[in-house]
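Subject: design request, 453 residues
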């Protein structure tokens, strides 16, 4: 909801000015109180809370600048706007130094006052939203722990022990694994176990264009480029003291890779348009859903950056390789979904559990959660009916009885699926990338690699 100030205090020794402001502001639904000098205003402050204070500078007994210095005024959360007919730039700056939000030169048009109030309200709204976001992030980070990761398999037990050990180091970490295996969850576990007191922030490197990504990561100075009307803090600065999770790191543009390497080597960043670097203390955890080493071999990813990121390499196995986790995850998701939908807790039958365990879940944990959500939507209220799972057959012609290389087989399968997606979308590469659940940039690399026109 938009912020709107209601209670205003006007401080001015001229009755005509106070009267004019009262008439104007009451027309815009503000409740206005009046004081003829700073001393009288302080008495009113003890009695009532004001959202905003409009104060003249030159007044008898206590002028505006002296008013700003009073302990009672410094303790206020009110927005203070100063007014003067004898103003200068130096006067305005002095007001700002003493805590005023803005400055208006007399004589002014009534609309100028209203516009200044609207700007102040927008600023207050942004401050409130920022505070709410910080509180949400703090709550999220403080409540999540490695014990919240649902599992039953020995593979996951061993992996989480590795996470606990690696979390204590300051080194960068690379998490590899198929789409939907839960790489961001592991990144959060690394942060929660690290003891770092800063925030956990995440960004998908394939979801933002190259030009915007640099500003998002490193920030920019005011005027650095068209539209940069104010200075912006980058995610590396905001997450200083905490952890920054770089998902889909293989899609980081080549021109940004040296800048990330500098962060990892020197522990400093340079904002877009800045001439000086600033030190940060941000732990980097990156994730790749594709073979990053293969991207290095093809020249799509810097080798030196790869080794900097993969000081610790954690591979998250696909769900089909940890079958013991399938049922416990299914029951966990079902419990959450039933609670969310206000339905009684439904049980999965023995036959249903077997079917879930026998399916190979190419979309991994994400596909499992999606499948259960659909099942719950279309099930009667008191029972759970699991729709049939379609076992995906191998693509014809991809299996050679004399060929045992998994890399060769996976490349053949990948090429076939890319061609099928392009056929399905009639050559529309953007739509094909969405079908394949990869970024357009990744698809373009693969098209070139496989020689697909």
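Subject: RE: design request

Done. Sequence follows.
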């Amino acid at each position: 909801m938009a912020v709107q100030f209601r209670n205003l205090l006007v401080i001015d020794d001229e009755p005509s000015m106070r009267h004019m402001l009262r008439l104007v502001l009451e027309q815009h639904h503000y409740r206005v109180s009046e004081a003829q000098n700073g001393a009288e205003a302080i008495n009113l402050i003890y009695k009532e809370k004001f959202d905003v204070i409009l104060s003249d500078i030159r007044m008898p007994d206590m002028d505006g600048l002296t008013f700003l210095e009073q302990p009672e005024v410094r303790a206020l959360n009110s927005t203070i706007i100063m007014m003067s007919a004898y103003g200068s730039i130096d006067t305005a700056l002095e007001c700002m130094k003493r805590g005023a939000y803005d400055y208006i030169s007399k004589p002014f048009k009534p609309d100028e006052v209203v516009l200044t109030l609207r700007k102040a309200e927008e600023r207050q709204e942004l401050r409130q939203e920022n505070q709410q976001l910080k509180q949400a992030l703090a709550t999220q980070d403080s409540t999540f722990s490695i014990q919240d990761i649902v599992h039953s398999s020995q593979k996951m037990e061993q992996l989480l022990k590795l996470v606990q050990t690696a979390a204590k180091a300051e080194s960068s970490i690379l998490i590899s694994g198929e789409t939907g295996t839960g790489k961001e969850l592991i990144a959060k576990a690394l942060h929660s176990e690290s003891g770092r007191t800063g925030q956990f922030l995440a960004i998908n490197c394939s979801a933002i264009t190259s030009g915007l990504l640099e500003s998002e990561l490193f920030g920019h100075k005011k005027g650095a480029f068209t539209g940069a009307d104010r200075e912006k803090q980058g995610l590396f600065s905001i997450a200083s003291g905490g952890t920054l999770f770089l998902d889909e790191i293989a899609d980081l543009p080549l021109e940004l890779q040296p800048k990330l390497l500098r962060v990892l080597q020197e522990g400093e960043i340079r904002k877009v348009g800045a001439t000086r670097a600033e030190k940060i203390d941000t732990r980097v955890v990156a994730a790749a859903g594709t073979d990053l080493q293969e991207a290095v071999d093809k020249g799509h990813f810097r080798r030196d950056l790869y080794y900097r990121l993969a000081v610790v390499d954690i591979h998250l196995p696909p769900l089909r390789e940890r079958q013991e986790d399938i049922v416990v995850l299914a029951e966990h998701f079902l419990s959450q979904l039933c609670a969310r939908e206000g339905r009684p807790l439904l049980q999965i039958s023995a036959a249903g559990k077997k079917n879930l365990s026998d399916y190979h879940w190419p979309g991994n944990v994400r596909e499992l959660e999606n499948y259960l959500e659909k099942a719950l939507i279309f099930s009667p209220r008191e029972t759970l009916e699991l729709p049939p799972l379609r076992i995906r057959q191998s693509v014809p012609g991809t299996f050679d009885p004399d060929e045992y290389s998994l890399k060769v087989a996976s490349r053949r399968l990948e090429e076939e699926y890319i061609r099928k997606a392009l056929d399905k979308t009639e050559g529309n590469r953007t739509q094909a990338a969405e079908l394949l659940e990869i970024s357009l940039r990744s698809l373009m690399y693969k098209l070139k690699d496989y020689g697909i026109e």
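The longest helix spans residues 110-143.
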